[in-house]
């Protein structure tokens, strides 16, 4: 039986590279973004994978849009093996120029978008008897970092939500996995004006995700090792030490 995957946030970066990888490995893929019709990359892929790539617009800020897209996915494919929530936005958020609209947008897309999707897709997975849901989170969820209060808090909320619902989903034979990755060179991280340790390409990150999702089940997939270990230590150190370290990161 062929494998079917739905990638949300597929028009660029990690999502686009994952779309290519899954197509090249024989999957049937539904690639979703806010405006797939005007994505040169996705439409170019479509010309090479006419029978196995389907494009579907989605607005993760709108439950009706998610529901309509999910109905279309199941109608087209009959069943779904994996859904990857990769939709996300990012803005640098220093305190001196704090913009509440940035916080609202990142919360609404990065976190609540995944909540809306989970609410709609869970009954469909339950009805077919299986499924895998993957949230693309971030290592910034481990500890609050300077200038990243909006993005990091939205990803931390996403991880906390995933931790809360994972036991319930497993009882329904639905696997939930989170991806906590470091800095990936995309149009989003191009906004950063600071050094990004262990910066990797979207292709490298997508390959790591692809291979790890193909292994035995584990809740969290994290990389790269050095950065994930550093942020893990920040999280378990006494605040007197960890906050002194993050203070030192300020320029």
UniProtKB/TrEMBL annotation:
The keyword Oxidoreductase applies. The keyword Oxidoreductase applies. It holds the Pfam family adh_short. InterPro entries: NAD(P)-bd_dom_sf, Sc_DH/Rdtase_CS, SDR_fam. Keywords: Oxidoreductase. Belongs to the short-chain dehydrogenases/reductases (SDR) family. This is SDR family NAD(P)-dependent oxidoreductase.
């Amino acid at each position: 039986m062929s494998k079917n995957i739905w990638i949300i946030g597929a028009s660029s970066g990690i999502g686009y590279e994952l779309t290519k990888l899954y197509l090249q490995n024989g999957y049937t893929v539904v690639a979703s973004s806010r405006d797939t019709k005007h994505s040169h990359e996705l439409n170019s892929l479509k010309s090479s994978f006419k029978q196995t790539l389907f494009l579907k617009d989605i607005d993760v800020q709108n439950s009706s849009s998610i529901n309509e897209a999910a109905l279309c996915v199941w109608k087209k494919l009959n069943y779904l093996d994996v859904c990857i929530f990769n939709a996300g936005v990012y803005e640098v958020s220093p305190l001196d120029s704090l913009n509440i609209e940035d916080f609202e947008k990142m919360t609404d897309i990065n976190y609540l978008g995944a909540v809306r999707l989970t609410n709609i897709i869970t009954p469909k997975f339950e009805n077919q008897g299986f499924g895998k849901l993957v949230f693309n989170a971030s290592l910034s969820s481990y500890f609050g970092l300077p200038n990243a209060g909006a993005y990091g808090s939205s990803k931390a909320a996403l991880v906390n939500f995933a931790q809360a619902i994972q036991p319930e989903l497993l009882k329904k034979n639905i696997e939930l996995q989170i991806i906590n990755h470091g800095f990936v060179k995309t149009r989003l991280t191009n906004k950063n004006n600071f050094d990004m340790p262990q910066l990797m390409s979207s292709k490298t990150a997508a390959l790591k995700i692809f291979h790890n999702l193909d292994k035995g089940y584990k809740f969290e997939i994290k990389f790269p090792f050095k950065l994930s270990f550093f942020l893990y230590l920040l999280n378990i150190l006494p605040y007197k030490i960890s906050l002194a370290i993050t203070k030192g990161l300020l320029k």
